[in-house]
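Ligand-bound model needed. fe (ii) ion.
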Amino acid sequence: MKITDALLAEHTVFHSLFECVEKQLTTPLSIERLHLLAELLLGLFEKHGKAEHDLLLPPLEPFLHEIGHLENFHKEDDIIIEMLRQVQEGDNAAFAHQKMLKMLHLANEHFDKEERCIFPLAEKHISEASLEELGAAWALRKDLSPVKPRTNP
Ligand SMILES: [Fe+2]
Ligand SMILES: [Fe+2]
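Prediction:
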């Protein structure tokens, strides 16, 4: 699987999670519930962002200027992570609620940018074989290497 397809598949999961969290945020939530939501998103988001930064960005770096306004791109994952940490560590439910809404807004924008600009740029400049290799490295991190068929005793 190409790394771009793997990351895109993860985005699909995030979109569903964000939708679900957004629905929950239409009513006031307890701080405990907000902590729980932040913890859930943080764990997944840190792994996703790290895979992008470690695997996809290095070979893509020389081409990032093509799509401009990419100064912030590197920082956005870190900002989102920081916002989730603030929710997780806060004790004021109203503040945490607002922070969570802002985080969702930024995360949706960030994902949209990656889907419209970053992943297509990777597909344009990185060979299919290299994208597959990076995809294999991604799967290895998650221990998703193909299951070997069982041999009968
Ligand atoms: Fe990202
Ligand atoms: Fe992403």
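The pocket of fe (ii) ion (ligand 1) is lined by residues 49, 52, 77, 110, 114 (CB under 6 Å).
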